[in-house]
Specification:
single chain, eight-stranded mixed beta sheet
């Protein structure tokens, strides 16, 4: 059996995708899917995510890109996995710099700082490498990803977060578009501030050693499902520092060397 195929019955996939859809729509988190389906595999979970994404598109949402999660060794060890995961970014998720985000539209949000890539040409695996990613990148900008879980208390295993669209919710793009050539994306530094106080720092190396390496992994992973990364898509390669919980009243700013800053307020 090809590794992208699932043994789950289509009706089970539909039911689980609907549970996650309703949890987001009603702002009521649910128990982990793996509690009722302990044998759920990552491949099964991707099929649930794709069913959820198909429903969003049927309602008119457009795919704006992809996000990569679990790119740090610490997060992989925490969930006992040895590879990242991914989720879809839809047009309604993409926000501009200094946006005010309504916390009532979310369940249990956290934020992560990332360097967002915008593609100028298609990337399709297998055999995509870092050089291919850089050649296919129009520019990068600083970003804040707002992650959220439709699973109660963030009690997620790898299949749970994959099925839940990689725990994605919103992305905030800032700064000015900067071409990748001439930038040291691996060593690029980031300072994260919450309500005017520095709370963490990081560098691009946190994302699988280099952000473009994470995007190469994604292009090759998507090839298993015959999906490619399209020109114009926004790709988030993974956080450069640990996720931070946020609540109403918080102001978050991520400052990146060479490419500027991005800020978001939670109201």
């Amino acid at each position: 059996m090809p590794k992208s195929e699932t043994t789950l019955k289509p009706e089970i996939i539909a039911v689980l995708a609907d549970q996650l859809y309703q949890a987001e729509a009603n702002r009521v988190p649910i128990n982990p899917l793996t509690l009722e389906h302990p044998d759920l595999t990552p491949v099964d979970a991707y099929h649930i995510q794709l069913a959820w994404a198909d429903r969003k598109q049927a309602e008119g949402a457009k795919v704006a890109g992809k996000k990569i999660g679990l790119t740090s060794k610490a997060m992989q060890q925490m969930l006992n996995v040895n590879e990242p995961d991914y989720g879809h970014i839809f047009d309604y998720m993409v926000l501009s710099d200094m946006t005010a985000v309504d916390t009532s539209a979310l369940l249990q949000p956290k934020i992560e700082a990332e360097v967002a890539f915008v593609l100028s040409s298609e990337l399709k695996g297998p055999n995509v490498h870092v050089a291919d990613v850089l050649d296919a990148t129009a520019y990068v900008v600083p970003s804040i990803e707002i992650i959220d879980s439709r699973i109660k208390d963030w009690k997620i295993s790898l299949p749970d977060t994959i099925a839940d669209n990689g725990s994605s919710a919103r992305i905030v793009l800032g700064g000015k578009p900067t071409p990748v050539y001439g930038l040291d994306l691996q060593l690029m530094g980031m300072v994260l501030e919450k309500n005017g106080k520095q709370i963490s720092t990081g560098s691009g190396a946190a994302a699988l050693g280099h952000p473009a390496n994470a995007i190469a992994w994604l292009a090759n992973k998507l090839a298993e499902f015959d999906i490619s990364l399209k020109p114009g898509e926004i790709i988030l390669p993974g956080a450069v520092a640990a996720a931070v919980s946020v609540e109403k009243g918080d102001i978050i700013t991520a400052k990146f060397s060479e490419i500027g800053f991005v800020s978001v307020t939670f109201v």
